[in-house]
Design brief:
By secondary structure, this protein is mostly helical. It has a 3-stranded mixed beta sheet with strand order 2-1-3.
């Protein structure tokens, strides 16, 4: 990596500099992080133990939940520690690695959303060929390709952001090492790097958006041709949760990364909190509370657990 990195550490200014607000925010974001871990881990475990959920759609959903856990974990623990600590310094390498891991999992999730849209397209538009097209081998290939594509993209992003010279201030006006606040500290010419970053973000976002858009256009055309109102309602209900997750993720992502650098304002922190902290917490509720199969499997597991607990309690009472 080229550049004259005279800075050996940065200072993350965090969400707020108000001492009165830091403790309540710590409690709030700690609860959000715990719910994120429990909710997404619960989705993964539930899919694993429920034979009725061993389908391509839920296979993609487990990886989606896994990326939610990972990229939330890249951000939240450090943010929580900074809310209670006076020392908010982060090393140059630590900042660079945080950005790399965040970029890797965020790009992976972007492509996973596109794959989930394609899966719904095949399920609704070509139901007779669904098992053939979305086979187990194809599922693994699609998921592996999302991670393999995200890895070099994250390396290029990281090189472009941290490859310049940091010879000025070392205060990052953010709660994690994100693109825009870090680039503000670079004192060398970063025009070419900014163009590369913008181009890669555009390519990733546009590719995923086109796949999702074409999938949903095809789904809409197929659904409108269905004769049964019940079939149309079932198809729309199947896609509603995914469409909601796509709208939240891409909406905040476009707001943050596809606007000119001069347009970034204080709302950036709010948008970052939404997509880096809140969305990973909301996704398990979106996919479980609006999905009858997940709710049925959850109830079965709960009844099975309760009956096992009662049986063990009965045996222990007799001994």
């Amino acid at each position: 990596m080229e550049g004259n990195q005279t800075q050996t550490e940065f200072i993350l200014l965090g969400i707020t500099d108000s001492p009165l607000a830091q403790t309540p925010l710590f409690v709030l974001f700690l609860l959000i992080y715990i719910v994120t871990l429990v909710g997404n881990s619960g989705i993964i475990i539930l899919v694993r133990v429920s034979p009725s959920l061993h389908t391509p759609m839920y296979f993609f959903l487990t990886h989606f939940a896994f990326t939610d856990i990972c990229y939330s974990t890249v951000i939240s623990p450090r943010m929580l520690a900074d809310l209670l600590s006076e020392d908010k310094t982060i090393s140059f390498l630590g900042c660079m690695m945080q950005f790399f891991m965040f970029a890797f999992f965020a790009i992976s999730e972007c492509h996973l959303l596109a794959m989930m849209a394609y899966d719904r397209h095949v399920a609704i538009c070509q139901p007779l060929l669904y098992v053939t097209i979305i086979s187990s081998r194809v599922c693994w290939q699609l998921v592996a390709s999302s991670y393999l594509f995200a890895f070099p993209s994250a390396i290029i992003f990281t090189w472009c952001v941290f490859g310049g010279s940091f010879c000025g201030l070392n205060r990052i006006d953010h709660f994690f090492c994100d693109v825009v606040p870090v680039l503000k500290l670079v004192c060398s010419d970063m025009h070419s790097s900014e163009m590369v970053i913008f181009a890669f973000i555009t390519v990733n976002a546009v590719f995923a958006s086109v796949v999702i858009l074409l999938s949903y256009i095809s789904i809409l055309c197929t659904v409108l041709r269905m004769c049964s109102a019940q079939s149309r309602a079932r198809a729309f209900h199947t896609c509603a949760s995914h469409f909601m997750a796509v709208s939240m993720y891409f909406g905040t992502g476009f707001f943050m990364y596809l606007q000119p650098p001069s347009s970034h304002r204080s709302l950036d922190k709010v948008a970052s909190i939404f997509y880096a902290v809140l969305i990973p917490m909301l996704n398990p509720f979106i996919y479980s509370l609006r999905n009858r199969e997940v709710k049925r499997s959850l109830m079965k597991c709960a009844r099975r657990f309760f009956s096992c607990w009662q049986h063990r309690r009965f045996l222990s009472s007799r001994t």
